[in-house]
Amino acid sequence: MARRYHHGDLRQAVLTAAVEVLGDSGPAAVNLRDLARRVGVSHAAPAHHFGDRSGLLTAVAAQGFDLLADTLEELPPSSDLLEAGVAYVSFAVEHRAHFEVMFRPELLRADDPDLRAAQERSNQAMDWAIAGFRDGSVDPVVAGAAAWSLVHGFATLWLQRALPADVGDDVEAAARAVAELLVRGANP
Amino acid sequence: MARRYHHGDLRQAVLTAAVEVLGDSGPAAVNLRDLARRVGVSHAAPAHHFGDRSGLLTAVAAQGFDLLADTLEELPPSSDLLEAGVAYVSFAVEHRAHFEVMFRPELLRADDPDLRAAQERSNQAMDWAIAGFRDGSVDPVVAGAAAWSLVHGFATLWLQRALPADVGDDVEAAARAVAELLVRGANP
DNA sequence: CGTCGGAACTAGTCACTGACAAGTCGGTGG
DNA sequence: CCACCGACTTGTCAGTGACTAGTTCCGACG
């Protein structure tokens, strides 16, 4: 494809390149000039679409929250909180590039409309999953915070390889075992 | 105090300044030149003590893991896993500057001896706390991962103000409620 | 008491980055 | 066919990390 003045789909191309870099080297390695080089445009072209670096990362994060919402919404209707928790962890591992940006407020424009909309979608999907945990004996707010904390913490620590080796190398199995402890109770 | 050629305790001074900046503006705002200006030395002086930026942040992280170990070791002997969990969250909130660096491997020199030693200390302190959870009915490795994931996730999300407002603004109370769900079980 | 070696710090520099301004290109609607 | 405007380029500036070479001072040793 010949080098044309108008790229045609620069925004998407930069976004894709950013996700690739994120996956390989993390958020710190993402810079506009390198992405421009990869895509074959001038160093200032990406700024036209994203404003600045935080605008770019915000777009990645928004895409990530949409993907997360998709993941949770696509769970079979029979799924319970346990399955949703495992899905959350799986999402984090499979879409590490997105996940590592989604929860870094300092990198993002918190007031971006697209980001807020995507966050809202994923929050609703999570609320829906947690609703199944409301058995009357526990405060649903506490239960929701606990469930989210557990899977979010597990995903975070797993991605950092901070967990002890004993937990094995099968994310889904480990996540399920951990989530089961909360959902089914320690003393079933 | 007159400006002398030898600062006297530059390493500690830079470290303190770094923690201050971290607390105010997060890791991204920490740069060697600004710290040098704050402390009143030339722009390259900090590098003499820390090598590079990651060396500085590694020193902060090591200090953080030591502080965490101190916190956990100072718990009264009667404390159970629940109290340890609350202490973990309290530590994260009270020492946010340190906490925000401790679990960012990409910012650190993972092979730094001081860092490894401090991590080892805090790991042992956590293992000790989790030992109280070994009641035979659950795999201790799973229980440990679950407990750590829960409090780590809660602390992380709390610091990001990502949790819904319903959980209140009392960290300790909220952390205790959430941790209780895991320790005592959802259906007591 | 001198001197001398090395640690602590300064000064200068380079490559790289984000951000901005001004100009150019080219598709599209009137 | 032409004016407009979004898409992109070119040029530039300040700030940063990292490196090198030079300067100052402390303290140990003869």
Written description of the protein model:
The structure is a homodimer of 188-residue chains. Chain A is mainly α and 188 residues long. Chain A folds into two domains: 51 residues, Arc Repressor Mutant, subunit A; 124 residues, Orthogonal Bundle (Tetracycline Repressor, domain 2), CATH 1.10.357.10. In chain A, 66% of the residues lie in helices and 0% in strands. Chain A is built from nine helices and no strands. Chain A is elongated. At the A-B interface, helix 8 and helix 9 of A face helix 8 and helix 9 of B. Chain B binds a DNA duplex (30 and 30 nucleotides) through helix 2 and helix 3. Chains A, B: This is TetR/AcrR family transcriptional regulator. Chains A, B: Keywords: DNA-binding, Transcription, Transcription regulation. Chains A, B: InterPro entries: Homeodomain-like_sf, HTH-type_TetR-like_transc_reg, HTH_TetR, MT1864/Rv1816-like_C, Tet_transcr_reg_TetR-rel_C_sf.
> What is the CA-CA span between the terminal residues of chain A?
62 Å
Question: Count the helices of chain A. How many?
Answer: 9
Q: Which blocks of ≥5 consecutive residues of chain A have pLDDT under 50?
A: none
Mean pLDDT of chain A: 92
- The CATH class of the largest domain in chain A is identified as Mainly Alpha
Biggest interface between chains = A-B, 45 and 46 residues
Helix content range of the residues of chain A, please?
A: 55-70%
CATH topology of the largest domain in chain A: Tetracycline Repressor, domain 2
Structural class of chain A: mainly alpha
Main sheet specs of chain A: none
Oligomer: homodimer
Tell me the total number of β-strands of chain A. 0
| Shape label of chain A | elongated
